[in-house]
Amino acid sequence: MRANRRAFERIAIVPRMLRDVSARDASVELFGRRLPAPVLLAPIGVLELAHREADLAAARAAASVGVPAIFSSQASRPMEEVAAAMGDAPRWFQLYWSTRDELVASFVGRAERCGCEAIVITLDTTVLGWRTRDLELGYLPFLHGRGIAQYTSDPIFKEIVHNRGRARSRQRPTLAGLRTLRELHRNVRGLDPRTAVQTFTEVYSRPSLQWEDLQRIRELTSLPVLLKGILHTDDAHRAVDTGFDGIVVSNHGGRQLDGAVATLEALPSIIDAVGGRIPVLLDSGIRTGADVLKALALGATAVLLGRPYVYGLAIAGEAGVREVLLNLIADFDLALGLSGCTNASDLAEATLTIAHSAIAG
């Protein structure tokens, strides 16, 4: 996470003067839709830990601003409920590829019916990283029935759980175990909670996932499909060559592989590898409008905003997320004008060489 921020801090913007920037346009086009700004809400799981309205509050805020919300596979509310709260505002769906192909197909089908306009497959979490804060707390929310609403609301998952039967434990119950069991019954309804959680841990993600497995997505949907977690140029080449529609340069906000390359440092080589054939988005480290400007100057089409909107959610729910988005977009609009540019195309043309020089220096 620190490396992501340092990468942004190393890049300097060299503004141009005496250009007419009285009329600016922060919008970009992505997969046929014009967005008011090059910003999307990143998929973040277990938002109920930040606010009781969780994904509903974040999605309503995104809809009010007009930026796409990317529904997480690890959401606290089912996608159908969240989509209904968004009206016709844009939304995407982020997919963790399960060990059960029938569950993957069900998630994708539900996303289509919910009006999602793209599928984002996260590649960097086929196993969970060594997350020291989680380990220090001895806490994983999924084991408490949190962040698994997409699963417990899914007909295929329910069928798998019912077929397994009720989970039984031969261990002597402890006070902590009884507290957890009570929490499970509160968080998981309509299914045996222990069986549901145990089933989730077994089907959640596929460590054996390979390029060949991903080809099945084309049998499931005609929506644009993006691959999230690409950091190496060889993977970028292969994503294009195998027909995927976009890339998200991401290191999971620094939460997976400690010591992984910073996303902004990886971006220029990914842009070169793609050669403009598909859009490249970036997340991990975005905090300010200047950060958005730097990512676009290096060739990104748009960015995904993560931690900042969760902070807003924790403080003020839907209103907090909306304020974070409006402030970030206003900050980007001013940074655009102060750099001497009027739109994203001008920005890339005017500052990309300068940005590359800053990296080289």
What low-confidence regions span 5 or more consecutive residues with pLDDT below 50? Answer: none
Helix content: 40-55%
**Mind summarizing the main beta sheet?**
8 strands, parallel
Globally, the shape reads globular
Q: Counting H and I runs of at least 4 residues, what is the number of helices?
A: 16
**Share of residues in strands:** 5-15%
**Strand ordering within the main sheet:** 3-10-9-8-7-6-5-4
Distance from N terminus to C terminus (CA atoms, Å) equals: 22 Å
Task: Give a count of the beta strands, DSSP E runs of length 2 or more.
Answer: 10
Class of secondary structure makeup? alpha/beta
Write up what this structure looks like.
This protein has helices at 2-10, 54-65, 79-86, 101-113, 132-137, 149-152, 155-164, 175-187, 193-203, 211-214, 217-220, 233-241, 263-274, 289-297, 307-338, 344-360; strands spanning 28-30, 33-35, 39-41, 69-71, 91-95, 119-122, 225-228, 246-249, 280-282, 302-305. With 361 residues, the chain is an alpha/beta fold. The strands form two sheets. The protein has an eight-stranded parallel sheet. The protein has a two-stranded antiparallel sheet with strand order 1-2. α2 (54-65) packs parallel to α15 and α14 (289-297) packs across α16. The longest helix is centred in the C-terminal third of the chain and has 32 residues, at 307-338. It is globular, with a radius of gyration of 21 Å. The two termini are 22 Å apart. The relative contact order is 0.18.
